[in-house]
Amino acid sequence: MELNNKFSYNTYQMPSFTASGRTVVNALGEMMHRNDTSLFRSDLGNWDKFAKFLYDKYQNTDKVNFYILSSSAGDEGYSVIMKLLQKYGEDGAKKFFPIIASDYDSKIISVAQKGYLPMYDGEDDLINSHTGGKFNEYFEKVSKIPDFIKEMDLEFDFLTKVKPVLRDKIKFHTADATEECHLLKPDNSIVMARNFWPYLKDESKRIKFADDLYKTLGDNSAVVLGKFDDTSGAFASKNLQDSGFICNPEIYTVFEKGVPVTADCLSYYIR
Ligand SMILES: C[S@@+](CC[C@H](N)C(=O)[O-])C[C@H]1O[C@@H](n2cnc3c(N)ncnc32)[C@H](O)[C@@H]1O
Q: Is the whole-model pTM more than 0.70?
């Protein structure tokens, strides 16, 4: 089957289930990107299964290099940390930390660096359901919204401050993913680069980004995509597979380097 790789941006296909969102426009008023993100974002699939995959893949490895490119406010990083802690405890999870998270949007990174995390109503319950009731151990609701956040037009229901037990396990900095991808450590690296590929606005950029990831990464490494990276029409899963990554047959959002080929994966995305 032939994939249509012509990308056209369709707002109706934008991710809709978000904890915080913000539209960023350029000087001409054209939309550059949105910061939409949420904790335990459902497009990853089963977060317990994902954590088990990480734990099993690296059971014989002392240190895992964990990167998040296009992190937005940090929801994916905090979700990974909470899930690994819940399943494997401080000792079992510590080789994955600190997670190195970046986004090219310096404003959303400044929110994360200062330890704030915007949430939507009900997200506290979601956290409790994933962690055995640890919302208050990990987060504190903030009653006074800082001026720099008020000025950002960030959409959220309530604001939290992340407690050190989580905050100390992730480092945030501002970086463009297309440059940051050259700086990744090659082996034993997990790279979450999710729900941002459509913002690389022509296919040659997405092909180059996939090729650069493949060239930079080495043994026992993998890239993790989001659903928006395909449903938007960007077809990042095809770009990664064309570069040589192998889709994990159990978790279709994970693309590995240096594992045996199976036929199952691409068919999942094109059916
Ligand atoms: C829709 S959000 C996705 C956030 C998060 N990865 C997730 O899946 O929940 C897209 C993010 O990608 C960021 N972004 C877009 N292009 C980027 C680039 N070239 N380098 C780094 N970040 C980028 C935006 O600033 C925005 O925060």
A: yes
> Looking at residue 20, what DSSP letter applies?
B
51, 84 Cβ separation under 8 angstroms: yes
Q: Which residue has the tokens 């790279």?
A: 191
* 130: Cα separation from own chain's centroid: 18
Q: How far is the CA of 259 from the centre of ligand 1 (A)?
A: 28
List the structure tokens of 117: 């995390």
| Beta carbons of 257 and 218 less than 8 angstroms apart | yes
Rounded to whole angstroms, the Cα distance separating 72 from 108 reads: 6
Q: Tell me which of 14-18, 55-59, 118-122 is least confident.
A: 14-18
Question: Could you report how far apart the first and last alpha carbons of the chain are, in Å?
Answer: 9
CA dist 242 and 107 (Å) reads: 34
pLDDT at 12 over 80: no
Q: State how far the Cα of 187 lies from the Cα of 241, in Å rounded to an integer.
A: 19
pLDDT at 241: 97
If one residue of 11, 20, 33 were mutated to test the ligand 1 pocket, choosing by the most ligand atoms within 8 A of its CB, it would be 33
Ligand 1 cavity residues, CB under 6 Å: 33-37, 41, 69-70, 72, 75-76, 103-105, 108, 176-178, 194-196, 199, 226
Domain boundaries, the chain: 27-115+167-270
Cis before 186 (ω within 30)? no
Query: Among residues of the chain, what percentage have pLDDT more than 70?
Result: 88
Instruction: Give the CATH class of 27-115+167-270.
Output: alpha beta
What sign does the dihedral 64-69-72-75 (CA atoms) show? Answer: negative
Which residues share a beta bridge with 99?
Answer: 170
pLDDT at 183 exceeding the cut of 50: yes
